[in-house]
Design goal:
Length: 350
């Protein structure tokens, strides 16, 4: 373990100092773009104004014979669009550490658009050693190419070993931005018996005891991802990082996508991935607090201006802890309101 005072030192001479605190940003959705698809890439300037993060995906879902085209497409889209103008994050998902593409992914992207890149998403992270490797390599590349702002790292939690090491991954580097749940690879890695990309499974249920009259037994579907999301959120929040739900693969089932996103939001996640344009509105709806909840949270904060004591509101006890809960909601509402004039009016925050 490094001494705390060495934790924040740059890992290469000339690399920018790591952030002490994460930049405060609204990241309701990480929108995945296939950069080898010319038609979709041409729409990125227009798309960038409508989402919080645009991610150029180089890993899974890009065919092997398109890997180089995807990388070049990403560089082209990064050069063609002023993402910062709309406050939109620019991320890429690089290929896995054991793949033949990872070095060229990082060398070409950091050398050509390193100053525009906010976050590198690293797939299939197994333990802190993977983060240490990427951390060192990014520092060397930042120094070599004169990158001014540290490029952050976001890990995908999608292997059984990664889940077992989630706390050590979260605390591996000050470059860590956060983590996303990768339900497809994780299901395969764990030997789960599902072909779905995220969401529930109708066969994962609990059933009530039989009754003497032989009536039909009540049964309810359970959440396959509850344990992993909770574990990821705790590891992230304990280290000042952000947790995200990942992909929802059934584009035709908006209701199920919304339910999955909402569970993640309630559990502490900041956002989710959007793979298709029809998931963007769902993420906007879900990852912003409910106006009635915001109004009540404002009343809690106003009832205890210094955040201490105990008061009653509508028959419900409020104290220092509920003040903190209210603050989470009000702070998020303010962040959303800065970007969304309609919701700003609805929230009516001063
Ligand atoms: C498990 C994991 O690793 S998940 C992460 C990896 N997967 C991905 O990144 C997938 C990202 N999404 C995609 O590549 C595409 O959505 C696909 C290939 C899956 C489906 O694309 P299509 O068959 O074109 O879907 P569909 O016909 O419904 O698209 C409707 C329109 O939205 C466009 N579109 C589709 N996906 C996207 C996207 N991610 N971003 C922007 N536009 C998109 C299509 O080009 C199409 O435009 P058009 O109406 O002008 O023709
Ligand atoms: C998100 C991702 O990569 C997965 O589910 O495998
Ligand atoms: Mg995956």
């Amino acid at each position: 373990m490094k001494l705390p005072r060495r934790f924040f030192q740059p890992l290469a001479t000339g690399a920018p100092a790591p952030f002490r605190e994460l930049p405060v940003k609204l990241e309701r959705m990480i929108h995945f773009v296939p950069p080898h698809n010319d038609k979709v890439r041409a729409r990125v300037p227009e798309l960038a104004a409508t989402v919080d993060v645009v991610l150029g995906n180089l890993e899974d879902a890009v065919p092997v014979d398109q890997k180089e085209a995807a990388r070049k497409g990403f560089v082209a889209m990064a050069q063609a669009t002023d993402f910062a103008a709309s406050g939109t994050g620019l991320w890429t998902r690089i290929n896995a550490l054991n793949s033949p593409w990872i070095l060229d992914d990082l060398f070409e992207i950091v050398s050509q658009v390193g100053d525009k890149l906010d976050v590198v998403m690293v797939p299939k992270v197994e333990g802190p050693w993977d983060i240490h490797y990427i951390d060192q390599l990014l520092a060397q590349l930042e120094a070599k190419h004169g990158v001014k702002k540290p490029i952050l790292v976001h890990a995908i939690l999608e292997t059984a070993e990664g889940v077992a090491n989630v706390d050590a991954i979260a605390s591996a580097s000050p470059r860590m931005h956060g983590m996303s749940l990768g339900p497809a690879d994780l299901a395969a890695s764990r030997g789960m018996k599902t072909t779905r990309v995220g969401g529930g499974h109708p066969d994962y249920r609990v059933i009530a005891d039989p009754t003497q009259d032989g009536a039909a037994r009540a049964s309810a579907q359970q959440d396959l991802w509850h344990y992993t999301i909770a574990k990821m959120v705790d590891a992230c929040m304990a280290n000042g990082l952000k947790a995200f739900y990942g992909p929802f693969g059934d584009f035709s089932d908006g209701d199920a996508c919304e339910a999955q996103f909402r569970n993640a939001f309630l559990m502490g996640c900041a956002g989710a991935w959007t793979l298709h344009p029809n998931q963007v509105a769902i993420a906007k709806r879900v990852f912003a607090p409910d106006p009635a909840e915001v109004a009540f949270a404002v009343r809690i904060v106003e009832a205890m201006p210094d955040g201490t004591g105990a008061v009653m509101l509508d028959g419900k006890m409020q104290d220092d802890a509920t003040w903190k809960q209210a603050k989470v909601i009000v702070d998020l509402a303010r962040l959303v309101a800065e970007k969304d004039p309609e919701l700003a009016k609805t929230y009516g925050l001063k």
